[in-house]
Amino acid sequence: MLTTLEGIYKDGRVELEETPAGIEGRVLVTFLPNGNGTPAPPPPTQGQMMYFGMFPTSRDLTEEDFKIAEFHGDPDDGLDWS
């Protein structure tokens, strides 16, 4: 079972906001942006397959790029996409 806890890394130590009860074991520490870097993109909403910032590229994507990539159903598959 995985457990996620929030905390702060400072002066070589990780300070957790709460102490987990009855848990002892290995941990992985992931450093999150603290406002000085680029924030993580929001997770996709239901029915949304991609979002701005999902694929880093050397050029900026535009709204038109997303409209071109949008799926509008396949008329030849015999399925009702409405």
Overall description:
The chain is 9% helix and 10% strand. It is elongated and about 55 Å long. It has 1 helix and 2 strands, in the order E-E-H. It has a two-stranded antiparallel ribbon. It has one helix at 63-69; strands at 7-10, 13-16. With 82 residues, it is largely without helices or strands.
Number of helices: 1
The largest sheet has its strands arranged as: 1-2
The low-confidence parts are: none
Helix content: under 10%
Oligomer: single chain
Instruction: Look at the helices and sheets and give the structural class.
Output: little secondary structure
- Output mean pLDDT: 79
- How large is the share of residues in beta strands? 5-15%
Q: What would you report as the Rg, rounded to the nearest angstrom?
A: 21 Å
Biggest sheet layout:
2 strands, antiparallel
